[in-house]
Amino acid sequence: MSVLVYTENWEGKFKKLSYELVSYAAAMAEMLNTSLTALSIGEVDSAELESLGRFGASKIVSIENEKLKNLDNQAYTAVIADMAKKLGARVIILANNNTGKAVAPRLSVKLKAGVGAGVSRLPSSLEPFTVYKRVYSGNAYAHIVIKTEVRILTLAQNSFDIAEGDNKPEIEKLSYDLDPALVKTEVRDVNKQSGKLLLTDAEIVVSGGRGMRSPDNWAPIVELADLLGGATACSRPVSDEGWRPHEEHTGQTGKIIAPDLYIAVGISGATQHIAGVSASKCIVAINTDKDAPVFDVAKYGMVGDAMKVLPGLIEAVKNVKSA
Amino acid sequence: MKILVCISNVPDTTTRIRFTGSKKLDTAGIQWVINPWDELSLTRALELKDANPGLVESVTVAHVGPVSSEPTIRKALAIGADSAIRVNSDAHDAYFVAAQLAEVVKADNFDLILCGIESSDFNGSTVGGMLAEFLQYPSVSAVSGINIENGNLSLTREIDGGKELLSLAVPFVAIVQKGIAKEPRIAAMRGIMMARSKPIKLVEPVMTEPLTEIVSYEMPPEKEACRFIDADKPGELIDILQNVEKVI
Ligand SMILES: Cc1cc2nc3c(=O)[nH]c(=O)nc-3n(C[C@H](O)[C@H](O)[C@H](O)COP(=O)(O)OP(=O)(O)OC[C@H]3O[C@@H](n4cnc5c(N)ncnc54)[C@H](O)[C@@H]3O)c2cc1C
User: Are A2 and A34 contacting, i.e. CB atoms less than 8 angstroms apart?
Assistant: First the structure.
C-alpha cells in the first residue's frame, strides 16, 4: 500500500504547484499511515528530483523516454497505471490542471478507481473515503464518497499549503519499455512563450473588465500587476472584443484561478465571472457603481473611476515597495 | 466521417443554486440548457460538416439522462444536429455516463467524438477521458481548435503558456474548451420546425456500478460584507493588503 503522486515538470523544473501537490500527497500518505512515492516523467535532473523530498516524498521514480516527450494521454495513463499497480497505490494524486484532467479520467477506467476531481481539502473520512469539491461552478460544494479500493484525486491549484521539511528521498531512475503503438498523437508544431508567469500560477492577479472602456486604457492594469509581481487577467467580453489575449479570460468558461489577491477593475461581477475567481483568498473590487454585484464577493472595495483610482494605487504600491 | 457530440443538460449559468435538504438540487424555476462547452462543440461539428460536405457524413448528439432532458436534446437538434441518442437513465456519476456513451459509440462506430472539458454542474472534467479509455481510443484534452485540411484532422491543444498543433487519425475523443467555436450557433425558426421531426433514438442503459456518490451538498461559506475604502485613500488599501491581509 502507498500513495502515488504524479509530478509534472516544466522544461525540467518543478514549480509551486508541484510542491503543493507533494505536500498534499504527503499529508494523505500520513492519514493512511503509509509512504509517498512521486513519479516524474521526462528529463529532470537529480537535484530537482530531490527537491520533492523536502515536501514529503520518500521515494522519487523518474522515467525518461523519448516517446513520452509530449503528453499523450493514453501513453501517460499506461505508465502511471503500471507504476500504481507496482506500488499497490491506494490513492493516486494529480494536479487538476490540463495534464491531470487529461490523464486522471483515463486512469480511473483503467484501474477502475473512482475520481475526486478538483478536491480542495484532505478527505474528511477514510471509511467511507469522502472528499470535498466545488460543484455548480463554485455556487455549491459537495461531499463525495469514492467507493473503490483505489482512488484518484486531482488537487485544485492554490488550495493546499506547502509544508517543507528536510527529507532526503530515495531516487530511482527507471527505464520504461513503452508500447510504441500507444502513442498516437503527433505534435507538429509548438507555439509557446517560456518564462512568462502563468495566470494560473500567479499569487496576485490584476484583472480588467469592460469598465476599462478601451484597450488603450490597459497600461495602469499592466503596471500595477508588474509592480506587484503578478499577472493580468480580464473578463470574457474583454477577450471576446480582442482587447486582451484569450489566455487572460477568467471565469466559468475561461481560466479558473485562486490567487492570494485578485483585483477586479471595472468588472461587474457576473456569476460566470465570479465562478472563475471565487476561491481567491482576498478579492478587491474597483467599480464606479457601488451596487455592482462584484462587491458582494469582494473583501475590500473602492467606488470610483478606474482611470482615476489606478494611478493612486500604483503610487501607493511604489511608496511601500521603496520604503 | 461520423461525428458524435456528447451533451450534458445543466442549469443555466445564472441559476441561483439551492438544495432541498442537503442531498437534492431544488429544481424549481431552473432553466435547463446545453452545457456551454458542449454547445460550442456542437457548433464546431456543424461548421466542419458545412465546410466539408463530402467528408462529414453526419453530426449526432448523445445524452445520458431521463426523459425530462428531452427539451435540451431538441434544442441541439434545432441548432442543427442530424439525430440524437438518449440513454434512458439518470446520470449517476461520470464513470456510469462514460460507460453508457462507450456503448453508444460502439453501436454506431462514430469516428470523431467531442466532449466538453467539463460539465458546469459537477465540474469533474472526467467523462471525455473515461469514454476514450473505455473505447481504447486516443484522447486529446484542452482542445481549442479542430480543423480538416485535405481530409485530415488537425487539433490545437492549449498548453501552459501556449499552443500545440497536433494531428492524429480517427477514431478519437477530443475534449474541447474555449476557442473551439466563436459563438454558439443559435437555433433558427426553420431549425426549430425541423427538429420536431428529427429522430431521438432511445437506448436502455447497460449495467454499470457507479464508482462515486454525492452524499451531501453545502452552500459556499458566507462572505463577510465588503469593506469600502475611500477611493481617495489608495495608501490605506495598500497598507491593509500589506499588513493585515499580508498578500503583497
Ligand atoms: C454561458 C456563459 C458563460 C460565461 N462565461 C464567462 C466567463 O467565463 N467569464 C466572464 O468574465 N464572463 C462570462 N460570461 C459573461 C458574463 O455574463 C458577463 O457578461 C461578463 O462577465 C461581464 O463582463 P464585465 O464585468 O467586464 O462587463 P460589464 O458587465 O459590462 O461590467 C462593467 C463594469 O464596469 C463598471 N465600470 C464602468 N465604467 C467604469 C470605470 N470608469 N471605472 C470603474 N468601473 C467602471 C460598471 O459599473 C460595470 O460594473 C458568460 C456568459 C454566459 C452566458
Answer: yes
- Residues 124-153, chain A, touching B (beta carbon < 8 A): 130, 133-148
A253, A275, A302: residue with CB nearest B178: A253
ipTM of predicted complex: 0.96
Beta carbons of B168 and A141 less than 8 Å apart: no
Q: What is the pLDDT of residues B79-108, one digit of tens each?
A: 999 999 999 999 999 999 999 999 999 999
Cell 516544466: give the residue: A10
Measured between alpha carbons, how far is A38 from A52 in angstroms, rounded to an integer? 8
Which candidate from A135, A189, A312 shows the least CB-CB separation from B122? A135
- pLDDT reading at B223 higher than 90: no
Q: Which CATH number does the domain housing residue A311 bear?
A: 3.40.50.1220
The torsion region of residue B28 among left (phi > 0), alpha (psi -120 to 50) and beta comes to beta
Ligand 1 pocket residues where CB is under 6 Å:
A 209-211, 235-238, 251-254, 266-268, 270, 272-273, 276, 286-289, 292, 305-306; B 13, 36
- For cell 468558461, name the residue: A253
Distance A280 CA to ligand 1 centre (A): 18
End position of a domain, from candidates A149, A182, A215: A182
- Is there a single domain that holds both residue A133 and residue A205? no
User: What are the tens digits of pLDDT across the range A173-202?
Assistant: 999 999 999 999 999 999 998 888 999 999
- Per the structure, the count of domains in chain A is 2
The confidence score (pLDDT) of residue A114 equals 98
| Residues B73, A95: Cα–Cα separation, whole Å | 33
Prediction pTM value: 0.96
A181 touches chain B (CB under 8 A): no
